[in-house]
Amino acid sequence: SSSVEALEVLRDDPDFDLVISMFNVGELDVFHSSKKIKQLRPDIPVVLLLNFSRDLYRRLEREDASGIDYIFYWHGNADLILTIIKLIEDKMNAPDDTASVGVQIILLVEDSVRFYSSALPHLYKFVLEQSQMFAKEALNDHQRTLRMRGRPKIKLARTYEEAVRIFNQYRDNMLGIISDMSFMHNGVKDPYAGYKFGQYVRKTGLIIPFVLESSEVGNKVYA
């Protein structure tokens, strides 16, 4: 029920795999407690759940969130918890699964916490339902398990540089890309970052479906 209690529990028990924290967690705020968690357990992912407010959003821009792996907005949808777990699992498993059995990757490029907090649960729900349908065609339990584990992995990039790094790492296994138009590039907000990333992908000569999404109708010409 508090960040101090969480640190005590983590010191006593090494078997935790994930920390999910709300914003108001007592006298030690989440930005400081997350860094202490990383000092104690560098390997453990730390996720922050927020209720959206403009004041909170402005504070996020000022604070050092280097101890936090992912930030999500909590809409009261329990699917978000499954999404967080699957996203972290995919991050851990993608290098081996793509190299060993050619599992494919779907890349979402988006820096809006509000948007990817809504989009990722839908994306995972679709992929998992499709994998379950595919698994039903298997002849036995072993094949069903393999088919479920062979579902496309989903990767999230929140900057241009992160998107390029993920693309270059998994370019031969890239099933498709969904990209926002405006996100961080070279440390500043670039209104055409998605278009530039699309050009980067196209110049490789690889035939990869690329969806450009934007709230501004004028960006249709770039798509």
Q: Topology, please?
A:
Elements lengths: L2 H10 L6 E4 L7 H11 L5 E5 L3 H9 L7 E4 L5 H23 L3 E5 L3 H23 L5 H9 L3 E5 L2 H11 L3 E7 L2 E3 L2 E3 L2 H11 L6 E4 L10
Parallel strand pairs: 1-2, 2-3, 4-5, 4-6, 6-9
Antiparallel strand pairs: 7-8
Helix pairs in contact: 1-2, 4-5, 5-6, 7-8
Q: Percent helix among the residues?
A: 40-55%
Give the N-to-C terminal Cα separation.
47 Å
Number of helical runs? 8
Fraction of residues in β-strands: 15-25%
How would a crystallographer describe the biggest sheet?
4 strands, parallel
Number of E-state strands:
9
Query: What structural class do helix, strand and pairing data support?
Result: alpha/beta
The overall average pLDDT, rounded, is 90
Instruction: Pick out the low-confidence regions.
Output: none
The Cα radius of gyration reads 19 Å
How would you describe the shape? globular
The H/E string reads HEHEHEHEHHEHEEEHE
Main β-sheet, spatial strand arrangement: 5-4-6-9
Give a quick summary of the entry.
With about 220 residues, this protein is of the alpha/beta class. It contains eight helices and nine strands.
Tell me about this structure.
The protein is of the alpha/beta class. The chain contains 8 helices and 9 strands. A 4-stranded parallel sheet has the order 5-4-6-9, sandwiched between helices. Strands 1-2-3 form a 3-stranded parallel sheet. Helix 4 packs across helix 5 (113-135), helix 5 runs antiparallel to helix 6 and helix 7 runs parallel beside helix 8 (193-203). The radius of gyration is 19 Å and the shape is globular. The termini are far apart. The model has no long low-confidence stretch (mean pLDDT 90).
